[in-house]
């Protein structure tokens, strides 16, 4: 009876440890994704507001026409930043998946070894 209690206690502890590892991986991934997106958004916001300020101060239609190439470049830079941010988010997702797989494999290996040790 004590052996069954010990096995149950060990299995419960393993499950709690696995849940804690999974929560940590999920939180780290969410923090990383949020940070990447916030950085891209902040850069876009700063550059866009600066450009809009220049447009507001431009002297008439000729000034606006002169600023259009800069606006096009800002748009291209923004698209590149968001593409880079998307790639970083995908990398974070892949690393997260690998960490989850490692946790599952470690838990499976540990459970298998524990079951083999308790079988006699």
Describe the structure.
By secondary structure, this protein is mainly alpha-helical. It has one domain. The two termini are 14 Å apart.
The largest pleated sheet is described as:
none
Name the helicity range: over 70%
Shape call: rod-shaped
Q: What count of helical segments does DSSP give?
A: 2
How widely separated are the two ends?
14 Å
Structural class from helices and strands?
A: mainly alpha
Estimate the mean pLDDT confidence: 86
Number of domains: 1
**H/E element order:** HH
Number of strands: 0
How big is the Rg? 26 Å
Percent range for β-strand residues = under 5%
The parts where pLDDT drops under 50 for at least 5 residues are none
Reconstruct the topology from this structure.
Elements lengths: L1 H56 L2 H58 L3
Features:
single chain; 120 residues; mainly alpha; rod-shaped
